[in-house]
Design a protein that fits this description.
The complex is a heterodimer of chains A (497) and B (140). With 497 residues, chain A is mainly α. Chain A has helices at residues 7-21, 26-54, 76-99, 102-106, 109-125, 129-148, 153-184, 189-199, 203-220, 228-233, 237-261, 270-291, 295-316, 319-350, 366-380, 387-400, 404-429, 446-464, 466-481, 483-491, and strands at 57-60, 71-74. Chain A has one domain (3-491). Chain A is globular and about 70 Å long. Classes of the chains: A mainly alpha (497), B mainly alpha (140).
C-alpha cells in the first residue's frame, strides 16, 4: 500500500474544484493551477524514485484486495509519463495565461484544464480496465469542453465531429470491456493477465484484443486518424498543444499496457497487425504533412506520424524496441507541445496559417526562428537532440525482429517529416520581410516565450543527457517485458486465480 | 392572460415536502438498504425542479440563493476529502471507518464515515442535476 500513488489523480481535481468555487478570481486560479501541476510533478518524481528502489507501487483503494477492489498501480512506465505530462502541462498552462483570453478564463478554462490532467494521470495509473474507461471519460469530457470553449464557428463544427467520434469509440470500448468480462470474469489488469495466460489466448480472445485495438487506435490516431487534423486545428494554441502532446499518447499508453500485459501471447497476429497499422499511419501522416501548405495541417499530420513511429517499437516487441518507444514517447510529448506552441506563435504573429502569406519573420523574431529550427531538427530525430535516441532504438528493435520494412518506413517518413517542418521554417522565417513589427497581428511576451524557450532547452537537455534517465527507462522496459513483475506487485502473491 | 395554476401551486407546496422528506429517508437508508447519496440527491433535485417548474426560476432563485455549480463542486470536494482523510491515518485512500455510539435521543446508533462521502455524492448530484436543468431552460 502506498497512498502517494493516488495523489497525481486527486491533486488536480481538488484544485479544479476549488477554482469552480472561486470562479471570478482569475489570479488565484492561475496560481493554484501552477501549484497543482508542480505538485503532480513533484509526486511523480517521488514515485519514480520509490519505484526504482522498491519496485512497482500499488494502492488498493479502501483496503479491498485485488482483484475485487479498485487497484491503482504505478510502474516506471506510468511514472515517467506522469512526470512528462506535468512538465508539458505546466508550460502549456503558462502559455495559456496571456494567450487564452479573459472570456475563456472566466468560463472555467483552468478547472477544465486540470480535470483533463487528472484524467490523463488517472489513465496512466489505473490498474483496472473499467477505471481506465472512467479516466478516459474524465479526460475526454474535459477535452470536449476545452475544444468547444469560446464557441467560434470552426470550433463548434469540429467539436461536434470530435464528440461524435469519441462517443462511438467509447461505446465500443465499453462493449469490448463487456466481452472481456464475459470471457474472463475479471477486469483487473493483473488478474486478466493471469487468466488469459492460463486459459490461452484463443481466437475469441484475439478478436476481443482487436476490438480493443480498434478502440484505442481511434483515440491514439493510429490509422483511424481521420478525425484528428480537423479537431486539433480548431482550439486555441495552448489547448491544441496540450491535446497534441497528451491525448493521443494516452491511447498509445493503453495499447502498450494491454498488448504487453494481457494480450502478448499471439504476437504473430496482434503485434504484426499493430506493425502494419503503424506503417500505414506513418506513410499517410507523412504524405499529409508533405502535401499541405497550411501550418496547422502540417503540424497535425506530424502528430500522426509520431503515433505510428512509437507504435512500431511495440510491434517489434523487443527490449530494444520498447526502450526506444519509451524514449520516443517522452520526446514526442515534449516536442509536440513545443512545435504546436511555436506554430501557434507564428500564426499569432502573421495572422494567417497559410504558408505562402508568411515570410521573413526571422528579421524581427530571431529567437523564435532559431528555436523553431532546433525544434524542427529534434522532431526529425537529428542527433544530439531528444528524438535521436528513441529513433535509433526503435529502428534497431524492428530490425532485430526482422521487420525491416517497418524500420525502413520509419526512417523514410522521418525524412519526410524533416522536409515538411523545414518547409514551414524556410517559408515563414526566410525570405523577404513583409511585416514590420507594427504591422504584425500579435506580439510576443514573456508568458508566451518562456514556455517555448524552456521546452526548447528541455529537448536539447533530453538529447544530451539521455544517459541520465537511462536507468529509469531501463526499469520501465524491464517491467513491460516481464508482466509477472506487474502481476506480483498487484496481487501480492495471493493464491487467487 | 395569466394561466390559472392554483391547483399546481397548492399540490407542489405539499408534494415538495413529501419528496424532500422521502429523499432524506432514501439517503440514510442507503447505508444498508437500497438508496444512498446518488438516488437521494437525485430525488432532492427532482423536488427542486418541481419548484422551478411551478414557480418561475426567478422566484425560486430569490428564495434559494445558491449557485448550484458551487454546490456540485463542494460536494465532490467533500467526497474527495473524506476519501483522502484516510491518508492521515496511514490507511489506503477511500478507507472507511464506523462505530456504535450511544447518542442522547437516538440510542445506540451506527456512525460511519461512508455517510460523509455520501453527503458529498448527494450534493454533487443535486448541483449537477439542477445546473443541467437550469442551463437547458436558459436559452430558448
Amino acid at each position: 500500500m502506498n497512498n502517494t500513488v493516488i495523489l497525481p489523480m486527486i491533486i488536480p481535481v481538488i484544485a479544479g474544484l476549488i477554482m469552480v468555487i472561486f470562479r471570478n478570481n482569475i489570479r488565484f486560479q492561475r496560481l493554484l493551477s501552477i501549484f497543482a501541476i508542480l505538485a503532480v510533478g513533484a509526486v511523480s518524481l517521488l514515485l519514480m524514485n520509490q519505484i526504482r528502489n522498491e519496485g512497482i507501487q500499488t494502492l488498493q483503494a479502501g483496503g479491498w484486495a485485488a482483484p475485487f477492489g479498485i487497484t491503482i498501480v504505478a510502474d516506471m512506465f506510468s511514472a515517467i509519463l506522469l512526470l512528462t505530462t506535468s512538465i508539458v502541462s505546466l508550460f502549456c498552462l503558462i502559455f495559456a495565461f496571456s494567450s487564452i483570453g479573459r472570456e475563456r478564463e472566466e468560463h472555467y478554462f483552468y478547472p477544465m484544464f486540470l480535470f483533463l490532467i487528472s484524467g490523463v494521470c488517472g489513465s496512466f495509473l489505473t490498474g483496472d480496465l473499467f477505471n481506465l474507461f472512467v479516466c478516459f471519460e474524465v479526460m475526454l469530457i474535459s477535452s470536449y469542453v476545452l475544444i468547444s470553449l469560446g464557441g467560434t464557428k470552426l470550433q463548434l463544427r469540429e467539436s461536434t465531429k470530435y464528440i461524435l467520434i469519441n462517443v462511438i469509440s467509447s461505446s465500443l470500448f465499453l462493449l469490448a470491456i463487456a466481452y472481456l468480462y464475459a470471457i474472463t470474469g475479471t477486469l483487473n489488469l493483473a488478474h486478466l493477465s493471469l487468466r488469459v495466460a492460463e486459459a490461452g489466448q484463443d481466437g475469441l480472445m484475439t478478436t476481443v484484443a482487436f476490438l480493443f485495438l480498434i478502440v484505442f487506435s481511434m483515440k491514439a490516431a493510429l490509422f483511424l486518424f481521420f478525425w484528428l487534423p480537423g479537431s486539433y486545428s480548431a482550439p486555441p494554441t495552448a489547448v491544441a498543444a496540450i491535446f497534441a502532446a497528451l491525448l493521443t499518447k494516452v491511447g498509445i499508453y493503453a495499447i502498450f499496457r494491454l498488448f504487453t500485459l494481457v494480450f502478448y501471447h499471439e504476437q504473430e497476429t496482434t503485434h504484426f497487425v499493430i506493425g502494419i497499422l503503424g506503417a500505414i499511419t506513418m506513410v499517410l501522416g507523412a504524405m499529409g504533412a508533405v502535401a499541405y501548405q497550411d501550418i496547422k495541417k502540417i503540424l497535425t499530420y506530424n502528430v500522426i506520424v509520431g503515433v505510428g513511429f512509437i507504435i512500431s517499437g511495440l510491434a517489434s516487441f523487443t527490449s530494444m524496441g520498447m526502450m526506444g518507444s519509451i524514449y520516443y514517447l517522452i520526446h514526442d510529448i515534449l516536442i509536440k507541445a513545443l512545435i504546436f506552441l511555436l506554430g501557434g506563435m507564428i500564426i499569432h504573429l502573421a495572422g494567417t496559417s497559410k504558408l505562402k502569406d508568411i515570410s521573413g519573420l526571422i528579421r524581427n523574431h530571431p529567437y523564435l526562428g532559431w528555436m523553431f529550427f532546433v525544434a524542427a531538427l529534434s522532431l526529425a530525430g537529428i542527433p544530439p537532440l531528444s528524438g535521436f535516441l528513441g529513433k535509433v532504438f526503435i529502428t534497431r528493435g524492428t530490425f532485430e525482429e526482422g521487420y525491416y520494412w517497418l524500420g525502413a518506413i520509419g526512417l523514410i517518413t522521418s525524412l519526410m517529416v524533416l522536409y515538411s517542418i523545414m518547409k514551414i521554417f524556410m517559408n515563414s522565417f526566410w525570405g523577404e520581410t513583409y511585416l514590420s513589427r507594427e504591422m504584425e497581428k500579435g506580439t510576443t511576451n514573456v508568458s508566451t516565450m518562456l514556455p517555448i524557450g524552456c521546452l526548447t532547452v528541455m529537448t536539447i537537455a533530453l538529447g544530451l543527457g539521455s544517459e541520465g534517465i537511462h536507468e529509469y527507462v531501463q526499469i520501465a522496459t524491464e517491467s513491460m517485458m516481464n508482466p509477472i513483475l506487474y502481476i506480483e506487485a498487484v496481487m501480492g502473491g495471493e493464491p487467487i486465480r | 392572460m395569466k394561466p390559472n395554476d392554483v391547483i399546481l401551486h397548492s399540490v407542489t407546496k405539499v408534494a415538495v415536502f413529501i419528496i424532500l422528506t422521502f429523499s432524506i429517508y432514501l439517503f440514510f437508508g442507503g447505508h444498508h438498504n437500497p438508496g444512498g447519496g446518488f438516488i437521494g440527491g437525485l430525488s432532492v433535485a427532482s423536488g427542486l425542479v418541481l419548484l422551478y417548474l411551478t414557480f418561475d426560476i426567478e422566484t425560486v432563485r430569490r428564495n434559494i440563493p445558491v449557485d448550484f455549480k458551487k454546490v456540485a463542486a463542494f460536494g465532490v470536494l467533500i467526497a474527495i476529502f473524506t476519501g483522502a482523510s484516510s491518508l492521515f491515518f496511514d490507511k489506503p485512500f477511500l478507507n472507511q471507518a464506523f462505530g456504535y455510539f450511544n447518542l442522547p435521543i437516538f440510542g445506540k446508533t451506527e456512525l460511519a464515515t461512508a455517510v460523509l462521502f455520501d453527503v458529498g455524492v448527494a450534493l454533487a448530484v443535486i448541483g449537477t442535476a439542477v445546473t443541467i436543468i437550469l442551463s437547458i431552460s436558459e436559452d430558448g
